[in-house]
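From the shared-data thread, chain only:
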Amino acid sequence: MLKSTIAALTLSVAASTAFAENPMVGGAPMLVERNIVENAVNSADHTTLVAAVQAAGLVETLQSEGPFTVFAPVNDAFAALPEGTVESLLLPENVDQLTTILTCHVVGASVMSDAIAGMIMDADGTYPVETLGGCVLQATMTDDMIQLTDENGTVATVTIADVVQSNGVIHVIDAVLTPAM
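Structure, as tokens:
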């Protein structure tokens, strides 16, 4: 009985510690035992991203084992795109373009912000980040914040870093990154 109580307390403390280490995103706790999609659907700040992932048919991929790093644009980032862009991208005939844009936010490895910062420093201030969508983002640091510049010159800042998932990590960003047009 004592052993099972100690084991339960140990699990409880471990779960509390893991939970405490992950920041809240969009008003929701981000649970480390959930995958990228399971957590994203709970974030009020990522409803547009979730709708886009669903429209592109990427839910199953982002629920798979991974590991992935997702630079996750907030709703305001999508709203800042030219009027009608999001609606157009969500149309079935534009699924290929939407998929390319979304996968330009995904790296096929789990990379925490301290590792990104280290790579930036080791590369004399700019580190090329190759994404699964074929985009090369340029990672830099400004005022201790990681910034990513896409192939069109759009700059996104990581506003919430290191949101650990069961299949990778999410870094919340404030702009939508696109491939070279």
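The CA atoms of residues 159 and 173 lie 6 Å apart.
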